[in-house]
C-alpha cells in the first residue's frame, strides 16, 4: 500500500515577501489576499492542498512586524503562534533584498523551534542567478535550514521542488480534511477579504490598514444568484470620501472587481451591495476587533 502523509506547514516571513502569492499558487486557487502593501494578511488562515500522496495544511500568517496598535499586536501573536504545533516551517524571503532586521528577528525566533525549517527564496525571476547566490549564502550561514529552495511564486517556478521538500517532513497519516476543501475559512470571510484586497489595490497609502470589511448579509436567492451586503469600515470621515471617490466612481470599481472574484469563488451570479461607514480608531478598540473576527481580543 502506498504511503500517505498529512501535516501542517507554517508559512512565515516579514511583510510583503510573497507568502500569500505562494500559498495561492500552491493551492491553485485564490484564498489568501494579495497586495503590494505590507501586512495585508491579518489572521492565520488554513489553506489545504490535497494530492494523491499527501495532504498539506498551510498556515498563511501575518508578516512579522513591530506592532503599533491592538490590531498589530493580534497580527504579531498570530504570526509567532504559527511556529508551534506544526510539522515544518517555510520561511519565505525576498531574494532581491538583503537580510535586514526583520529577517534577523525571525531567525532569532526560529532558534527555539524544534521542527525543520525550509528557506523558500522567493522572486528569483527578478534578478540574475549570480546576484542571488550571495544572498542565499548569508542565510545559510545564519541558520541551519533543513533545505533551501529558490522559487518564484508569481511565475510558479520550482514550486514542485518546494512541495517535495515539505513532504519529506510530514508524518504518515490519513487526510485531515475532505479532498475538495481548500480552506477552513467560511465563504463570507473570504469575500470580505476579497473586498478589502480591492480597497488596498485602489486607494492611497493612508487608507489600507485603516480598512475593515464586514459582511452583514449573504443570501442565496430563488434563481441561485447570491446577494451580499458588505460594509467597508474606515477610521476617519476623510478616508470615507477617498474610498467612495468622485461621484462614487472608486466604490463602483471596488465593487466590480470584488464581485468578479466572488463569482469565481461561489460559482454563481453575485449582486454585491457595498456601503462605507466610519468607525473611529477601530484598530485599537477591543469590541470592534472581536466584531471583525479577531477572536484573540
TrEMBL record:
Region (G4): 122-125
Source taxon at top rank: Bacteria
UniProt keyword Metal-binding, yes or no: no
Annotated coiled-coil segments of the chain: none
Matches recorded under InterPro entries: G_ERA_dom, GTP-bd, GTPase_Era-like, KH_dom-like_a/b, KH_dom_type_2, KH_sf_prok-type, P-loop_NTPase, Small_GTP-bd
SUPFAM superfamilies for this protein: P-loop containing nucleoside triphosphate hydrolases, Prokaryotic type KH domain (KH-domain type II)
Full protein name: GTPase Era
Organism lineage: Bacteria, Bacillati, Bacillota, Negativicutes, Selenomonadales
Amino acid at each position: 500500500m502506498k504511503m500517505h502523509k498529512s501535516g501542517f506547514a507554517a508559512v512565515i516571513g516579514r511583510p510583503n515577501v510573497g507568502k500569500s502569492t505562494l500559498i495561492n499558487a500552491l493551492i491553485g486557487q485564490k484564498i489568501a489576499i494579495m497586495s503590494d502593501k505590507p501586512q495585508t494578511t491579518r489572521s492565520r488562515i488554513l489553506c489545504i492542498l490535497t494530492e494523491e500522496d499527501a495532504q498539506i495544511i498551510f498556515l498563511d500568517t501575518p508578516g512579522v512586524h513591530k506592532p503599533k496598535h491592538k490590531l498589530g499586536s493580534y497580527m504579531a501573536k498570530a504570526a509567532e503562534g504559527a511556529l508551534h504545533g506544526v510539522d515544518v516551517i517555510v520561511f519565505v524571503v525576498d531574494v532581491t533584498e538583503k537580510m535586514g532586521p526583520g529577517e534577523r528577528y525571525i531567525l532569532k525566533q526560529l532558534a527555539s523551534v524544534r521542527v525543520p525549517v525550509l528557506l523558500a527564496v522567493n522572486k528569483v525571476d527578478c534578478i540574475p542567478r549570480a546576484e542571488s547566490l550571495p544572498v542565499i549564502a548569508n542565510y545559510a550561514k545564519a541558520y541551519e535550514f533543513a533545505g533551501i529552495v529558490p522559487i518564484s511564486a508569481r511565475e510558479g517556478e520550482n514550486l514542485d521542488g518546494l512541495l517535495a521538500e515539505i513532504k519529506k517532513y510530514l508524518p504518515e497519516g490519513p487526510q485531515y480534511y475532505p479532498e475538495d476543501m481548500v480552506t477552513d475559512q467560511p465563504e463570507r470571510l473570504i469575500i470580505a477579504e476579497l473586498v478589502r484586497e480591492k480597497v488596498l489595490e485602489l486607494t492611497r497609502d493612508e487608507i489600507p490598514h485603516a480598512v475593515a470589511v464586514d459582511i452583514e448579509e449573504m443570501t442565496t436567492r430563488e434563481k441561485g444568484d447570491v446577494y451580499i451586503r458588505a460594509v467597508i469600515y474606515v477610521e476617519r470621515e476623510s478616508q470615507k470620501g477617498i474610498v467612495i471617490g468622485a461621484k462614487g466612481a472608486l466604490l463602483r470599481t471596488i465593487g466590480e472587481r470584488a464581485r468578479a472574484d466572488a463569482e469565481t469563488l461561489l460559482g454563481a451570479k453575485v449582486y454585491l451591495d457595498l456601503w462605507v461607514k466610519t468607525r473611529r480608531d477601530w484598530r485599537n478598540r477591543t469590541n470592534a476587533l472581536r466584531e471583525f473576527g479577531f477572536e484573540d481580543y
